[in-house]
Design brief:
This protein has 13 helices and ten strands. The chain is of the alpha/beta class. Helix 10 links the parallel strand 8 and strand 9. The longest helix is centred in the C-terminal third of the chain and has 29 residues. The radius of gyration is 23 Å and the shape is elongated.
Length: 324
């Protein structure tokens, strides 16, 4: 692949939704997975929008670009002619856009921002902020031009699992703000989209106790809200290892064969480390079993020891594109 290109596998069959919401406990790599999924979906020549809503500029850092504005910008292409665009949704800008769209405030809206009214509104009413953010995502997902969808798929780097249910449950949040009018209508449209077959929420986890527990909790919450759950994506995974144990005599013979020291301290230290690794691997297998009980499709992405760069991002995109 040329520099700046993503995977060219055909991902449509494995990832049939149009709106892909990616969540996960902080530190699981959900932004990286969202970016890799966008590249995978664009790999067969499609146009994909990658959206972030938390103001962290994680997408810009991954792709080595300037901070994203409140505008859709191309950030990657594929050899098959696909394109990934990115957007950082800002709640204040979204509110100004909303006010201009429904109330034709124009310059008056900018004056409200100058006096701090926009920041006040989005801070005092967190539900309004989420309605604005999800409303912008819905608009991009359903936007058409010349009777064709502008984007074949939209990937949302969403808030973490601890907040994902409230973030996506916009109908309940909007009900606290308005009983009638454009806000209510918009929230109902967003809610319908999020509960439709064109949406899938993918949950990213590590094979560690806290991320897996948050994954289980989030999936239970999303299921109760009737929001479709797509795949569980295990990030930073190591291949399963057969059960077994290593004895000190075995370690001593191996060290001797390699021409390394076989003194008692060395053998004992290595034996303790090996035992700890076996315990850790046993825990990982137990957590794999817990995730399998969900009955959801899963994808495992490997740990990349060299860290995350564009080559690594493309490699993950290839694995996501090839998922069953």
């Amino acid at each position: 692949m040329r520099a700046g290109e993503g995977s060219d596998g055909r991902a449509g069959a494995a990832w049939p939704a149009r709106l892909h919401v990616v969540t996960g406990k902080g530190g699981t790599g959900k932004t990286t997975v969202a970016a890799a999924l966008a590249l995978a979906l664009a790999g067969d020549g499609r146009r994909v929008l990658l959206v972030e809503v938390e103001g962290r500029q994680g997408i810009a850092q991954l792709f080595g670009t300037d901070p994203l504005p409140y505008a859709e910008r191309p950030i990657a292409t594929t050899a098959a002619g696909g394109e990934v665009r990115a957007l950082a949704v800002d709640a204040e800008e979204a509110l100004l856009e909303y006010l201009d769209m429904f109330y034709k405030l124009g310059a008056a809206g900018k004056a409200l921002r100058k006096f701090g009214a926009i920041d006040f509104a989005t801070t005092i009413a967190p539900g309004l902020r989420d309605v604005l953010l999800t409303g912008k995502v819905k608009e991009a997902t359903t936007r058409t031009a010349d009777r064709r969808r502008v984007y074949d798929a939209v990937v949302l780097d969403a808030p973490p699992t601890g907040r994902i249910g409230r973030f996506l449950n916009v109908t309940a949040e909007a009900a606290r703000l308005a009983k009638v009018g454009p806000i209510k209508n918009q929230s109902e449209g967003v809610a319908a989209l999020l509960r439709s077959p064109i949406t899938a929420v993918h949950v990213v986890t590590l094979l560690e106790e806290m991320p897996v527990q948050e994954t289980l909790d989030a999936i239970g919450e999303l299921t109760a809200l009737r929001i479709p759950v797509g795949r569980v994506i295990v990030n930073g995974a190591r291949p399963p290892q057969p059960a077994g144990r290593i004895t000190q005599p075995e370690l001593r013979r191996g060290l001797a064969a390699a021409g390394l020291p076989t003194d008692r301290a060395t053998v004992s230290g290595l034996h303790t480390e090996a035992r700890d690794q076996l315990v850790r691997r046993a825990l990982e297998e137990s957590l794999r079993a817990d995730l399998a009980e969900l009955g959801l499709p899963q994808v495992e992405l490997p740990l990349l020891p060299e860290g995350m760069d564009r080559a690594g991002l493309n490699a993950l995109a290839g694995l996501l594109a090839a998922a069953d």
